[in-house]
């Protein structure tokens, strides 16, 4: 470091505690007038300095150094907890940029995590499951015939004054409609469901689910109207055989047919569902 | 001896009281502290050379502090506060080092 050999002021009254830099010539003259203190001299002075001799000047100096100590500590404390007010404008701008970028990144991350969370919580899966269950319930209700349904389909009007229809003909007709994809069938006032049966009454009348068909009756089926009408028109099929027997059959395709007959489901007495855990 | 005790007392006082630095003083305090440290080291050197004078110490101490604060203030007004503060710190650091070197030579002869 700067080796400043300049040891002493030239005058009896020293100009400053920290030696001023002067021109080399003056330095030399000063050196001549007041040589460097020897090591012993310096140490003696140090010991002398250690002695306690209070004067007014010493006390004032002590006051100043005390204030220096306080300021030193206070400043160190301030620096320690240096807040934003210590920073300059450019630093603040850079800091703001950093923070903004970081906030954006974190915002994206938050959105992603919240997405994940909702997916994991099954809000979406829950909704899908609920929707699937609702649809399953709906199709079961339609299959079981517990709800009225409407949709495209056909209406088959049968004028059977002679009572020529037989059990087999009706069964064939129902089967043909089912074959053609009928989703719901109503014959007369009876909803045709899985457990529906066709029988013959005592006077030879055709019974559907125990109810006698009384002419004229209509058969209504919901499904693809064209396919259903085609199924009814199969040669040797339902319409053909009825007409051959002397009945009058009219098939009408419609955009909307209503099936409002309901089937009363009965509690199964014997069949029990297999517990799901044992299901394959 | 008494000024050294005063310094110690001041440090302890600062640690115990932990005074709040007023905001208007905050830009000036660091430079002022460095300037005061320069005066203290100069005084230590002067005392080893037998030329310590407490009147001069007080005056140099106060003038150092005032000039340092003035430079910072001026620098802030001119918009070069940071650069000027750095310059002042460099200069005062050089003086402190040279004073310490002198003290070392006086006491240790090296």
Number of helices of chain A: 8
CATH topology of the domain at 151-259 in chain A: Alpha-Beta Plaits
Approximate strand percentage of chain A: 15-25%
Strand content of chain B: under 5%
In the predicted model, the low-confidence regions of chain A spanning at least 5 consecutive residues are: 1-33
Query: What is the count of β-strands of chain B?
Result: 0
Number of strand elements of chain A: 8
Protein name (chain B): Small basic protein
Keywords (chain B): Cell membrane, Membrane, Transmembrane, Transmembrane helix
Subcellular location (chain B): Cell membrane
Pfam family, one (chain B): DUF1290
Please specify the SSE layout and strand pairing:
The complex is a heterodimer of chains A (280) and B (110).
Chain A: H1 24-33, H2 39-50, H3 56-80, H4 89-121, H5 123-144, E1 149-159, H6 167-179, E2 184-187, E3 190-192, E4 198-200, E5 206-208, E6 211-212, E7 217-222, H7 225-232, H8 238-245, E8 248-259
Helix pairs in contact in A: 6-8
Chain B: H1 2-17, H2 29-48, H3 54-78, H4 81-108
Would you write up a description of this structure?
The complex is a heterodimer of chains A (280) and B (110). Helices cover 47% and strands 16% of the residues of chain A. Chain A is an alpha+beta fold and 280 residues long. Chain A has a domain at 151-259: Alpha-Beta Plaits (2-Layer Sandwich). Chain A is rod-shaped. Mean pLDDT of chain A is 79; it is low at 1-33. Chain B has one domain. Helices cover 81% and strands 0% of the residues of chain B. Chain B starts with a helix and ends with a helix. Chains A and B meet through helix 2 and helix 3 of A and helix 1, helix 2, helix 3 and helix 4 of B. Chain B: Keywords: Cell membrane, Membrane, Transmembrane, Transmembrane helix. Chain B: Belongs to the sbp family. Chain B: It is found in: Cell membrane.
């Amino acid at each position: 470091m700067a080796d400043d050999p300049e040891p002493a002021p030239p005058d009896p009254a020293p100009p400053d505690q920290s030696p001023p830099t002067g021109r080399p010539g003056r330095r030399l003259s000063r050196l001549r007038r007041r040589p460097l203190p020897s090591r012993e001299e310096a140490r003696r002075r140090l010991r002398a300095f250690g002695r306690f001799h209070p004067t007014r000047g010493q006390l004032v100096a002590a006051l100043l150094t005390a204030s220096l100590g306080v300021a030193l500590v206070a400043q160190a404390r301030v620096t320690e907890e240096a807040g934003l007010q210590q920073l300059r404008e450019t630093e603040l701008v850079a800091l703001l940029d950093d923070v903004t970028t970081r906030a954006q990144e974190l915002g994206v991350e938050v959105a992603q995590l919240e997405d994940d969370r909702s997916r994991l919580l099954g809000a979406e899966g829950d909704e899908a499951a609920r929707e699937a269950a609702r649809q399953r319930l709906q199709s079961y209700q339609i299959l079981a015939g517990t709800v009225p349904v409407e949709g495209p389909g056909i209406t088959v009007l049968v004028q059977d004054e002679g009572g020529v229809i037989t059990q087999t003909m009706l069964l064939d007709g129902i089967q043909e409609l089912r074959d053609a994809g009928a989703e719901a069938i109503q014959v007369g006032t009876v909803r045709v469901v899985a457990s529906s049966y066709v029988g013959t009454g005592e006077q030879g009348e055709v019974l559907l689910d125990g109810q006698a068909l009384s002419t004229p009756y209509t058969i209504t089926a919901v499904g693809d109207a064209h396919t259903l009408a085609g199924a009814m028109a199969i040669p040797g099929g339902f319409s053909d055989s009825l007409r051959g027997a002397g009945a009058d059959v009219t098939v009408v395709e419609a955009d909307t047919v209503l099936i409002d007959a309901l089937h009363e489901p009965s509690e199964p007495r014997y069949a029990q569902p297999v517990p799901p855990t044992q299901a394959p | 001896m008494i000024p050294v005790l005063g310094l110690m007392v001041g440090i302890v006082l600062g640690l115990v009281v932990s005074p709040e630095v007023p905001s208007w003083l905050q830009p000036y305090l660091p430079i002022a502290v460095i300037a005061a440290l320069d005066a203290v080291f100069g005084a230590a050197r002067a005392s080893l050379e037998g030329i310590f004078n407490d009147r001069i110490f007080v005056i140099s101490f106060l003038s150092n502090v005032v000039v340092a604060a003035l430079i910072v203030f001026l620098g802030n007004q001119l918009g070069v506060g940071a650069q000027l503060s750095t310059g002042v710190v460099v200069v005062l650091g050089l003086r402190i080092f040279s004073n310490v070197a002198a003290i070392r030579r006086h006491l240790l002869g090296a």
